[in-house]
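Journal club prep, notes for RB
We'll compare a predicted complex against what the paper describes. Inputs for the NA7 case:
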Amino acid sequence: MSANQNTTPIKSETDVVVVGAGFSGLYLIKRFRDMGLGVQVFEAGTDVGGTWYWNRYPGARCDSDSIHYSYSWDKELEQEWTWSEKFSPQPEILQYLNHVADKHNLRDSVKFNARVKAATFDDATSRWTVTTEAGDEVSSRYFIMATGCLSSANMPDIKGADSFKGDTYHTGHWPHEGVDFTGKRVGVIGTGSSAIQAIPLIAAEADHLHVFQRSAQYTIPAFNGPLPDERIKYVKENYDELRHAARYSPDGMGTVPPAKGALEVSDEEREAMYMKGWQTGGFGFARTFNDTGINKEANDTAVKFVHDRIDEIVKDPEVARKLKPTTYPIFTKRICVDTDYYATYNRENVTLVDLTEAPITEITAKGVRTEAQEYELDAIVFATGFDAMTGSILRVDIRGAGGQSLRDAWEAGPRTYLGLMTHGFPNMFLITGPGSPSVLSNMTTSIEQHVEFVTDFIGHLDENNVAAVDADLAEQDKWVAHVNEVANYTLHPTANSWYMGANIPGKPRIFMPYMGGVGAYRQLCEGVANDNYKGFVKMSETSAAAE
Ligand code: NA7
């Protein structure tokens, strides 16, 4: 079914307004409808899918196992849908979300092509007014940002960017009709996860590919492939147990934490265990030992292992040297998962440009100029990432109690209670917001947990005739301190990562996701709910109760 493209501005009242029609927004529609509440979703894209709608670059796929990167709330769906590969490609995930939207008629609650520009809380009525660039204006009791953690594209401010005469792309806004690079001289700026997935495929098509690398990245081979029939059968027969294990595991995929530290074993055992993790493919390598995230010496052993693999794969020792990250511990920036990334540099039509030796000075009409030389190009691909975790939230002009702006409230970095609410913004919820495990977990597990928490909470508030709820300031301060304390126990804050906001000039440096793990966080939230939603302040009663 194609999306409802009605362009007539909506002027109405409802129970809940949700921003975003990705995994979170779609599940919110289902839950609120089942509760008998009205829900209006606004989505900037022309259809459902969120991240999987926008990120259509070559090679885009999920790094979480397909079977875990899916909804657990529809038992029929679990049985009728069959993932084709270990790591799902973007078109298949988008197809899945379209299937879910069709199956449950979810599009009826979404206005597409509608980017939310402002949301304002009225202290007198405890209602939000949400407006879009498309002229919609909806008043609601609750306002939920389900905008995803990586959806506000980062276009670096490089001198002369508009002067380039060739084609320009950003991986996060890829043309729906695809791009044919055959015979083209292509430049890719950036070497994060998106670039690492796209580079081998662009290299196979282009006449020549220049990769402009500001920071070398650690990447682990995916060893992706078709899901064997016996695996599919096992999963379908055991979904309930697998989902339960996923919900209470640290990573949201049921992985059992490693039992040993890298420094506790012999050199031979360590090497063998790293090799096993490497050959398993994907994030498994990061879960080889329990101390590599917190102990630099242990971490160095994983660094050396990956450096050795780069030396093995890359034929030119000088290129291999440039590809080896040396300035930050492994796992402190989001680990990448690839298919043939390092080997791509053995191709004659691929050149690695090390920007640490000669930074980009400008983009010219002909291509990219560094301090060393100008590179003539037909197309530039910006694989420069996102204003992560806060970008899409702060792009909306959000005004809470007393007209306070969220941009002001978060000037020194995001502050939330459990990543779900922020003090001074009553009845506004965040799905996988900063201060929750979010990007450090399997996103669908964390999304479901937040959607269920928020919808259950709203049900509880309605049952108790509560009209407005806010995060308690002291509880929020404690939570922010705890998030920082856990992060500071690890090596994570030592890297200039997007987790820290370090990729965006001027963004406050604060470690944004919660590192305590999905299972522990879930139990904490269950405790909060069982304790009459401790830490949330119930502010006023509904008029029904007051009558
Ligand atoms: P990332 O991981 O933020 O990668 C962006 C890359 O772009 C990274 O290598 C950056 O270098 C580079 N970059 C950013 N700005 C510039 C400028 N001005 N000049 C040169 N290079 C630049 O984004 P992705 O889209 O790859 O992945 C984001 C997440 O999506 C990923 O982690 C998964 O969770 C899914 P830097 O490292 O900052 O030096």
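Talking point for the session: Residues 543-547 have pLDDT under 50 and may be disordered.
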